[in-house]
């Protein structure tokens, strides 16, 4: 039988396949938790640490088994962050950080460091859509002269959990449910919200996930956050705690939910296409690198634990210091070779950058290498071209799957005399990495520090910081997501939980989803952080896409003048008409058409400019009208001149905020560009 296990049972109906599988079916409900070896475990919430706030210990066999099994669950697609896109670029330093770190690429303002950045969604498979409601990955590989440094970040500054041992749990909960593999790339289902209700440390992250941050306008218009607390260590051995930020030069902007859903069908590649096309056009995305810095002596002066990955450091309390800029200026040559094979790891650091005892970070330091071993086929994934450092590497590692290095000589061990005891370690003064010598003592325990047990204060801080439109969107997001949940018990648990964040928020959600509104709860937290609201970001017209609706018989000279004015302001107009080819104005001016109404949609643009023309086609008028109204309903700027102006002026749309009706060319361009910069007009009355 060659070791195959075949059931001898057989149903009377002859369904032998069912019988064959019966012995492998397991119902875990009501059972005690065990390891894969059958050992019953007394704890599954916390990894084994040296003291409540100490580092995770290697002897934690349960942690290793759980994470190892999780890391190897998918072949070859990434378990999380499977849907991604990337680009090459460079990083330049504004100001030397020598007082804080000895990392060379953060000391020398004259050098530019090559980078490779991969943006991604977390939950969906490789074939899922770009614009789903989800966290976005923002991983940067710096190819420094001292080795590769990976800043593995997200577009949300906090995370669902506090301890790495729970990472398999949150991913299992948010992924499609295993009995039917649905829904794809969505948290709007029972298991995710059951996890939230029963793991209340996720409250803060869930507020961010329900906010506009989870549906960014583009990769180019979202922030990146290192999430964890790291250490910078200078040449004197003095350390500072740091959190790391990427700030987009175009500001932080989002889609609206209805728009995001439509885009998923119209163009599931919307974000990757946007990144690719803008780099090809020379509209290079730029992000400034910022750091928040806390002196070691101030570690315990805040009303939150700075090592807790479910907490931010409010920028009003710990300002972000802008120290450099990253520019993405080259697209990949081959998506598989570069985007799919790139391997990031928060443990890839350079001298002057070190870790803290954040238990989520400690878990990631184990998990990432383990994941690459199975996904990329063995221990030599560092030799894949996209992962190779720009500096030489020398050690006694040999052989293994996919080895490319041809090591010469007979010595492959340390210590030795045949090769003069080389390759050999070097001192810190010679550039050698040495871990920060933090004093650690404590009993071996599976526990959470008391300082990690406040799960709601910063979730309330986030809610307090939102503008009225942002709050409305959060309520709608909760109502949509929980409206998809089948379990009445889970819905009630979630509403009762978020009453601790804001009682009125919970009551409105309860009404929308048909459960009992909580009678008590609320929060005494009144503090807000203006930096958290997207109302306080940069507003620029640069690279915004404008749909120009036009047909034969337009005023050619005026339209060309307006199009040139828009382009000179950084706006990207694209022509939409009845058919492809060229269309002619009444003065003989010809314009090339980019799209028809069949090949594009209003959700793929940031604004609409209506020119119209002399067409009497009822089909054109209907298609154009639907196009404009959809953009209007998504609060986008709309402009019109000449025939188009008269068309909108007779409609209620023409009297609304953000609708520019103007025949004077210069006035129109100035007003319309300002409206495009505003991005959305939330005070518009949309039916």
From TrEMBL:
The reaction(s) this protein catalyses: 2 H2O2 = O2 + 2 H2O
Class of this enzyme: oxidoreductase
CDD domains assigned to the protein according to its UniProt record, in alphabetical order: catalase_clade_2, GATase1_catalase
Cited InterPro entries: Catalase, Catalase_AS, Catalase_clade2, Catalase_clade2_helical, Catalase_core, Catalase_haem_BS, Catalase_immune_responsive, Catalase_large_C
Molecular functions per Gene Ontology: catalase activity
UniProt cross-references to SUPFAM superfamilies, sorted A to Z: Class I glutamine amidotransferase-like (SSF52317), Heme-dependent catalase-like (SSF56634)
Its job: Decomposes hydrogen peroxide into water and oxygen; serves to protect cells from the toxic effects of hydrogen peroxide.
Protein name in the entry: Catalase
Organism: Lederbergia graminis
């Amino acid at each position: 039988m060659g070791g195959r296990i075949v059931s001898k049972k057989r149903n009377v109906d002859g369904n032998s396949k069912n019988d064959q599988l019966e012995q492998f079916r397991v119902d875990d409900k009501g059972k005690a938790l065990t390891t894969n070896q059958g050992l019953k475990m007394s704890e599954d919430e916390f990894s084994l640490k040296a003291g409540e706030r100490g580092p995770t210990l290697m002897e934690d066999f349960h942690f290793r088994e759980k994470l190892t099994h999780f890391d190897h669950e998918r072949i070859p697609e990434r378990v999380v962050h499977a849907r991604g896109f990337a680009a090459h670029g460079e990083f330049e330093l504004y100001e030397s950080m020598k007082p804080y770190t000895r990392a060379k690429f953060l000391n020398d303002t004259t050098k530019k460091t090559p980078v490779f950045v991969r943006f991604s969604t977390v939950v969906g498979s490789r074939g899922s859509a770009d614009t789903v409601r989800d966290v976005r990955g923002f991983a940067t590989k710096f190819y420094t002269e001292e080795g590769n440094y990976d800043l593995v970040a997200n577009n949300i500054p906090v995370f669902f959990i506090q301890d790495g041992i729970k990472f398999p749990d949150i991913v299992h909960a948010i992924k499609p449910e295993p009995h039917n593999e649905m829904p794809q790339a969505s948290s709007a289902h029972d298991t995710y919200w059951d996890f939230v209700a029963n793991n209340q440390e996720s409250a803060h992250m869930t507020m961010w996930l329900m906010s506009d941050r989870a549906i960014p306008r583009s990769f180019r218009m979202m922030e990146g956050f290192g999430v964890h607390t790291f250490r910078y260590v200078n040449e004197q051995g003095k350390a500072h705690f740091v959190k790391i930020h990427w700030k987009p030069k175009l500001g932080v902007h989002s889609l609206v939910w209805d728009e995001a859903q439509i885009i998923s069908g119209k163009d599931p590649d919307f974000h990757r296409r946007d990144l690719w096309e803008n780099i090809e056009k020379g509209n290079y995305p730029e992000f400034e690198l910022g750091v928040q810095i806390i002196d070691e002596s101030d570690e315990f002066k805040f009303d939150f634990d700075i090592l807790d990955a479910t907490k931010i450091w409010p920028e009003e309390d710990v300002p972000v210091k802008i120290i450099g800029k990253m520019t993405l200026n080259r697209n990949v040559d081959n998506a598989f070779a570069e985007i799919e094979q790139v391997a990031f790891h928060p443990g890839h650091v350079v001298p002057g950058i070190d870790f803290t005892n954040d238990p989520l970070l400690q878990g990631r330091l184990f998990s990432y290498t383990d994941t690459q071993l199975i996904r990329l086929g063995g221990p030599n994934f560092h030799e894949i071209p996209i992962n190779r450092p720009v500096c030489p590497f020398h050690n006694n590692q040999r052989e293994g799957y996919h080895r490319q290095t041809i090591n010469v000589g007979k010595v492959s061990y340390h210590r030795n005399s045949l090769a003069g005891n080389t390759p050999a370690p070097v001192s810190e003064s010679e550039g050698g990495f040495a871990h920060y010598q933090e004093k650690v003592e404590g009993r071996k325990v599976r526990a959470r520090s008391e300082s990690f047990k406040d799960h709601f204060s910063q979730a309330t801080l986030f809610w307090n910081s939102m503008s009225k439109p942002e709050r409305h969107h959060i309520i709608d997001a909760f109502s949509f997501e929980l409206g998809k949940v089948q379990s009445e018990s889970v819905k009630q648990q979630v509403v009762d939980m978020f009453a601790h964040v804001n009682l009125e928020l919970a009551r409105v959600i309860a009404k929308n989803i048909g459960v009992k509104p909580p009678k008590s709860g609320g929060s005494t937290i009144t503090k807000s952080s203006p930096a958290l609201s997207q109302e306080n970001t940069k507003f620029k017209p640069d690279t915004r896409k404008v749909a120009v609706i036009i047909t034969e018989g337009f005023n050619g000279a005026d339209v060309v003048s307006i199009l040139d004015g828009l382009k000179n302001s950084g706006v990207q107009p694209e022509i939409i008409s009845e058919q492809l080819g060229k269309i002619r104005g009444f003065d003989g001016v010809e314009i090339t058409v980019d799209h028809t109404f069949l090949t594009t949609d209003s959700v793929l643009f940031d604004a609409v400019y209506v020119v119209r023309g002399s067409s009497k086609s009822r089909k054109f008028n209907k298609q154009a009208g639907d196009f404009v109204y959809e953009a209007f309903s998504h609060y986008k700027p709309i402009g019109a001149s000449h025939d188009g102006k008269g068309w909108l002026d007779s409609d209620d749309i023409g009297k609304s905020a953000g609708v520019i009706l103007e025949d004077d060319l210069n006035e129109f361009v100035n007003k319309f560009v300002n409206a495009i910069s505003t991005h959305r007009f939330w005070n518009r009355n949309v039916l």
